[in-house]
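ok so i was messing around last nite and threw this chain in just to see what happens. nothing serious, just curious
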Amino acid sequence: MKFLHLERLQNAFSELQKEFSFPINSKNFIDILSSNQYLAYSDQIIYRFSKLQDSMGAKLFKSLLLYQGENVNFEIRDLRNEIAHDYNSNDDIAMEMLNSIFRLKDDLRKILEKIEMSV
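result:
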């Protein structure tokens, strides 16, 4: 199974990492906002993260992890909900969301791979 949303999210991070180190700081974020190209990568990261969460489905995700005896951690889902409500309202929040997605992307891949192996 190919995880298109995750792959595109990681590709967008790879492009941003050519210019910026993560976690980004306020100056880096201002630079991202002032560049149409970097802003497009940032928007793609947030969009793909949100779509990936939607496609996984909270019930399937929770049920499968509980079935396997895993600790159910909804930090990823909480971040997706935060994105849906706060992304455009505050630059500091948007910057922190990008940093959080960067920090959680490898965990998300591991979870998806575990689900794929279980199915």
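not much to say yet. The radius of gyration is 15 Å.
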